Amino acid sequence: MSYFLYTAGLVGGTLWAAITPLTATAVETAEHQPQLKFSTHIRPILSRCVGCHGSAEQGGLRLDSREAILRGSSSGPVVVAGDAKQSSLIKMITIGSQSGLRMPLGQNPLTAEQIDLFRIWINNGLPWPTDEPPLAVTDPRLNHWSFQPLGHAPPPAVNQRDWPRTPIDHYILAKHEALSLAPSPEANRTTIIRRLTLDLTGLPPSPEQVARFIDDPAPDAYERLVDRLLASPHFGERWGRHWLDAARYADSDGYETDGPRPIWKYRDWVVCALNSNTTYHDFILQQVAGDLLPETTAHLKTATGFARCGKGGSTPGKRLPITLIDRTNTIGRVFLGLTIGCAQCHSHKFDPISQREYYELFAFFNSSDDQYLEFATPQEKDAHNNHKAETATLQKDLDQYELVLATQLNKDPMLLNSLQQPYDRTILKEILALSPDKLEGSQKAFMRERFREIDEEYRARHEQIESHKAATPVLTKTLILRELPDPPDTHIFIRGVPEQKGPLVEPNVPACLPPLKTTSRANRLDLAKWLCAPDHPLTARVMANRIWQQYFGTGLVETADDFGLNGARPSHPDLLDWLAGKLVQNGYGIKSFHRLIVTSATYRQKSEYRPELQETDPQNRLLARQSRLRLEAEIIRDQGLAVANLLNPRLEGPSAFPYQVDGIMSGRADRSTWKMDTGPARFRRGMYVHSWRLTPHPVMRAFDLPDAAEACTRRLRSNTPIQALTLLNDHWFTEFAVALADRTLRENANQSDTQKIEHMFHVCLARPPTPSELHVLQRLVRQQHDSLEESPERGNQLVQAISLPITSPPVQIAIWSAVSRTLLNLDEFITRE
Amino acid sequence: MNCPFEAAQREESRRTFFAHSGIGLGSLAMATLWDPPATTGQAPRSVTPESLQPRQGHFPATAKNVIYLFMVGGPSHLDLFDYKPQLERYAGQPMPDSYIGKVKFEQIRDSHPLLMPSPWGFSRAGETGRYISNLLPETRKILDELSFIHTVSTEESVHPHAQLLLLTGHRTAGRPSLGSWALYGLGSESENLPGFIVLSSTVVPQAHDGILTSGFLSSIYHGVQLRGSGPPILDLNPPPGITPQENSYVVNAINELNAASLASKGDPEIAARISAYELAFRMQGSAPELVDLSDESQHTLDLYGVDRHQLDRPSFARECLLARRMVERGVRFVQVNLGDWDHHGSIEKGFPPACDQLDRPMAGLVQDLRQRGLLDDTLVIWGGEFGRTPVAQPQKTAPVGRDHLIESFTMWMVGGGVKPGVDLGVTDELGFHAVEDPHHAHDVQATILHLLGLDHTKLTYRYQGRDFRLTDVYGNVMQKLLS
User: Hey, of B172, B245, B248, B273, which one would you mutate to test binding to chain A, going by the most A CBs within 10 A of its CB?
Assistant: First the structure.
């Protein structure tokens, strides 16, 4: 037990290290001096403060250790060691309660005696005995489930032993059994193959693939199908697009200008990483800090485009606080599943994230610079250089011609009489007094303007050079991060305002999570390693949950972007932990994780509604059936392309410009146009459609394409009449319908109407029609046939409206596109069953 | 309205889907499918068939339709409707000590920020001689009719959360919006247009789609947002060479097949889709006429400030006029967003143009509705997600602005059974807090529902084991506003 005395001589800036030995000896000699005992006098006072001024850091202030007290609040120091009078902390505990500011806020004030003791303590230099630990702050929020280490509850035992196919099913079935529910039977094979093909590749199965699977008697037919689909390069596209939602990917900058940006190489990286069966660990590590890995390559640097996907243009060397805030928030949302962005202006309202901690995370990004990574192939570089050389030659010729003109002018200044545009005559006089080959840059520029006006040939040659310049082949590049050799200081932005700098902070991670494993100043690589460490309680849970959500419609945690105190609790906590545990397992490829889920009996169930479950489980959280999920915007397009036999399966490369409504790009600040692709690029998959943040393609927007303003961890699935109008009348779908009709007619040339309808059903829905469905469509064919009899030329109108090489007779196209349009519009067509 | 599509539909009446009324096949099929078993009595709410069919509220309504002029960013009530002479008197003086700690600023850090009167001044208007900003020359003409709530408060000082709180009753995204609740309670009066339409060409609210979703309610109540540039609704015409009649064959076939699918799968989303196709089909006939403003008289165009030569140019004026056309055609809930109110800095430069955008269209709308007799059963609401501080927000490099104020701000209502000319609530002499009749945003919501004939405590939806409502467990109808 340590005592210390009020000793006027020991005040001021004296360090605690210097005080300790003195107080220890002073105790015995100064018995009659007023005595202050930290544990009995000061600790109880501070303990009244730390509820708010502990880890919650209200106002950026902690009062749980001497060091923290001396550090002060986000507005500055609160104590002057040795001078209570100058210490605002004393003011705060003594100010009149009518001010509404008196601390402890909203509680009884400290007693006069306590205030005196506290004054003495400050005057004394805030001595904090070495054997007195900092105040133990037990923030109950730290007990929140998602901050706890991953649990390892073994899959529970179940009665119905023949149902589970994977450990997943044990967790699911155990709950069913506890509630006396029975899972749904397995979906039939046509549903299964369409579900799996859409889920894993985003494309429909071909009728041949369906037939092969249905007829496959092997016991492992299902597993082989899964393996075939996981090996498809379209797997990376399908799951890459989900990830790009989280990465807030777009091909433009956003904000008012919304200029184009080269970042499709990052999109290619995502697709490639998933296709190469990357591990969860590498997937995160490389995107957060690929540039800092010891063996970094252009490919790994490209991965850091993740940080660069946010809104806002940037110039290398000039970093805008708002883009750094976006990166910090994205890390929080996508990896931690926390709405840490709330702590940008003040400590988080619900979660134990202080404003200081926010800026400590921010500091990781404050030490990186925005860069381009050039990607030119030798051919591209050659073409680029040759083109530039041509421009230079043209310019050189023009320069010579300039000299000729200038010489002429010198001899005959009357030539300038034809000038209409106003100009500075004194400058002209000066120039004419000089020898034409002695002109300086600004003088040359002045004369060029005049030449353009008076000499037609000069003007023509100048324009030729300009257009030649504009046609210079683009050198592929992409946006990346680069660590600054000498990172700037990071300050708290008081109230989130970048201009109002608060205390200095160092890169660090929130205290509610495991600490960083580094001793020196941490950098982004340390952050990346921390995020994907197997003992991180959040990252793997959040990732596993988002993947689960795509397969079942809702995550085990419904609020996929909020695992904090305000978020939902997991429906199956043990399952979530078990899945997360799989992800962090050393060397576990991400495809294995997908395989695990889709081979479960839970996944293989029928999706039909079960009225008897409406009462117990209206939202299907217990998964006693699969869910019907409306397909995403891109996949609706992809399916249309696929069934129409138009799909261009090209995997990589710059974004495409398929058909677009006229005038969609008007009124934009940016001058870019939508130059429609005419070649195969116009039939590329939806994920490659060039995405302007401010001008999304109307079809994509109608089906809830996120606006990429920030990370989207769960898409809306709306169901509106605008969607119906789009599928019914939009140009894209008209093209698909016509091409599907043409394909059907060609592939069933001598077949009956019934067979044609059946063919379309197989192509679009992977199943034959029921008799009543057949009946409806036969009637439609008759109606359409009769309707066209009076004006068969309308078939030509339809065919001419689209630019496709159609081989069938236009009237036949007009008849059969009624059927194909019907199928493309079916709820079943745009739904994964 | 003479609609070729309806003629086509009538021919198809044998198939009955579009024959008459708003009852879609979806709702019929659902009713059959989910008929509660005799033993369990009444079906729980969440499996009750839902439709857009018009229905009675809990008590007779005074308002049939709502036009909500939502001011994105939080306009300064102290420069528009809440005149504070004391601000002029104490201009430039520090905020009094008595307020310290009682105002939650969003960005201001100074402990004693300086009081700032409205740079444009107020003057009296109308017969009642109420004060209104000099920046609203048109609105002063209708001032006598407007009923102000000067003391609305909210808890959220960050834009997206505050927008969600005002429009969905809850700070985070995912709850049904006001318009969706109105449709859920009353259905749609329009067979040919969506019942809840959002117009937002001037701004993308920070809460994005969160303020127009139907949340856990059926998708049929989702807000339909019209496009901000170019044609407001695309794809209203059948593909080239295809007649409306042929399109009706196709839509019939689609819905018949979807109905079969609904019967076997039972997913209410299929019913919602059937309903969407029925509506989409009718919109092909009705929507082009709705958005074509060429039949409006010059008088009307002038009233709103729409340029006859630029009828298609997106603007708040155009959207206010569209809003009137929508309620005329039975659209239940129209929300028109207007942006550019977030004046943290340079308010002197930024505020007048924002008012210019607002003034004439807003006043024109009210006058037009009045002239056409539509104001009797149309409620018009004006307000943002919060107000702004009586003190200036200093800026390092730019002129001052005003910070967010959530403690008390002004909204107004007119029509739809609101007593005209009411001044509800009084703020203190500087405009920081309510001193009389404080009201929360939930009170505004409760009152809107009340005017529509809905009891906000009874309009519930069972979801995840609990009855949800727009006003959560709060909200009081502002009786003093009712006539």
Answer: B273
